[in-house]
Specification:
Blueprint: E1 5-7, H1 11-18, E2 20-22, H2 24-29, E3 33-36, E4 41-47, E5 53-60, E6 68-70, H3 81-86, E7 88-93, E8 95-100, E9 107-113, E10 119-127, E11 133-141, E12 152-154, H4 162-166, H5 173-179, E13 188-192
Parallel strand pairs: 2-5, 5-11, 6-11
Antiparallel strand pairs: 1-3, 1-8, 4-5, 7-10, 8-9, 9-13, 10-11, 11-12
């Protein structure tokens, strides 16, 4: 699954990376965070009418709690099918967190692209009844870089595939399968981080820094987990 991410790169850098313009509302509201959980804001890249790309703010989660969608069944899902056909977006993040181990000794790891580029996740968006832009992140079976920690991982898009993913209109099943495959070996790398990331009230760049692996004591109370 994918239930916690870091998004801290400057907006102007992301705009240059995606050859996109930044929506004014995003400029006014955006703050970097190293511990983004569902119901919090994410940056999304969409293709506007005319083909230009736009960076906008989206609240993470359809209907509050649907923050992940299984790519294998998304086109036939009552919750996500319409969005899969016509409202796809890309979600740039610095990296995502996943927890390994059992019980109170579960340990968070931070996954990033091995080449240092932004991690671009496949997502869907919708406007809810209150007019709020919301999004969900697609997942697939874990590839070799994540399988030892979790059996699911977010769908990682190659920048070369971004045009196909963002274009308006439905994708053929073969196209969807090709775009939503597990990340190839060596795409991602990870390191253990401080357990404080388990509480969404904690934030700051120290949360993504490497921490000693397995040497700290268990937390005094349960983590606040979404994955």
């Amino acid at each position: 699954m994918c239930g916690r991410v870091a998004v801290a790169r400057p907006l102007d850098g992301l705009a240059k990376y995606f050859a996109a313009r930044v929506a004014p509302a995003l400029v006014e509201s955006w703050e970097p965070s190293w511990n983004v959980a569902p119901t919090r804001p994410l940056v999304g890249v969409v293709e506007a009418a005319g083909g230009d790309r736009v960076l906008q703010a989206f609240t993470w989660g359809f209907h509050d709690r649907l923050f992940n969608a299984r790519s294998e069944t998304v086109t036939v899902s009552a919750a996500f099918g319409e969005a899969a056909r016509s409202r796809r977006l890309a979600v740039p993040v610095d990296g995502f967190f996943e927890w390994e181990g059992e019980g109170r000794r579960r340990r968070p790891r931070f996954f990033v692209r091995a080449d240092g580029e932004p991690l671009v996740l496949a997502g869907l968006w919708e406007r809810n009844g209150a007019g709020l832009l919301t999004c969900t992140i697609l997942t697939t079976a874990s590839g070799p870089d994540v399988a030892a920690v979790h059996d699911r991982e977010p769908v990682v898009l190659d920048v070369a595939d971004l045009g196909r993913w963002l274009r308006h209109g439905p994708l053929r099943p073969s196209e969807l399968d090709a775009l939503c495959r597990p990340a190839a070996a060596g795409t991602l790398c990870s390191h253990p981080v401080d357990r404080r990331v388990g509480d969404v009230r904690n934030d700051g760049p120290d949360l993504v820094q490497p921490a000693p692996d397995g040497t700290d004591p268990p937390d005094p109370e349960p983590l606040t987990l979404f994955s």
